[in-house]
Amino acid sequence: MKKCIAVDFYDLIGQRQSPWTPEDIDRLFAGYAEAGITSVLWRLSCCGKLLYRSNTPDRFDFAGNEYGRKAVELLRRFDPAEAAVAAARRNGIGIFFWITLYDDRGYGVNGLSSRINRDHPEYSWRSFDGLEYYAGMLSYVYPEVVEYRLRQIREINAYGGDGLYLCNRSHSRPPEIRKAMDLLCKEDMTGINRWCRENGGRIAAAVAESVGKFGFDPPALEAYGKMPRDMTDWQRFRGTYFLGALRKFRDAASGKLGFGLRYGGSLNSFFIYGKDFFDWEYLSRGGLLDFMAYQLPIPPETGLEEYNDFLQPSPLEKWLWMNVSSSSPEKCLDLYLKQWDRWSEHLDGVIFFEACHLTGNPVFWNFIRDLK
Question: Hey, where are the domains in the chain?
Fold first, then answer.
């Protein structure tokens, strides 16, 4: 069984008191290998910024909080992506670079954002009346957005990893929530994580209300040629633009290509795409992708009717996205094991999300070693 760990190195930089070195990254990978990890998803993009020595305007340069200042200082000293590939090779494990496709706007008035999101707000998903944008949720209807992402892929190829993992998770939030966060972060960002925890229900409700409200891009509306009254048909039509972009990413990428998260309606609170935007059945057949990450329900919830594509035989590798919590890990392990036991016959491996939650939790590492 393949065991993969999702590493958001930005979080690890923030957790640590002393500066990271390439040797520290090597020790990190050595620990992963010892625990039976076979590959790593190494995150390079977050909120529109790139945590490697990119030659684009989006190289990480945000020093608005302690995490950001540490990251900027680290990039001056060495390139973490280069160090991660070297560490992976020395320790005999795979490395896939993790890029977020819909995550180009963070928190705060002067906070994290890609240049394209800042300069072209019209490239984000638009409300039908044209009065609001879901900032950071870039639309691949626009050729400029596709080319923006292709430039990143071409740069990342040069590091010599084993491939790419393209992700649809996002820090971007609906206008109502974004405005509240921007106000909170006007002076500093120290309270944002607590605010998000305290307002989780409000955020989830706002995201749910946004499903079907955004994504009315003028070029797509014009090509559609009629009023989009049938939302299923409209979402499927818009999804063809994403598939077109994904084919270009496939052609540009060296190595394997993965995509996630595949999720069902019951797990949809933080996804505004709706059920029909991504053509999961087509993607699950393989050919375009080499592997896909699935966010699957924990028993007794089954939701089998939402995962017919998952249950069908496919040349595509299917990996479980396992959300490991950093609080009370001992109480969660039984649930994680039930989830694995329920779905494992259909799976090729598991992705443990995420590395920062596993820091200082030896009980998790014992669980990872023992999982069969």
Answer: 2-106+142-171+237-370
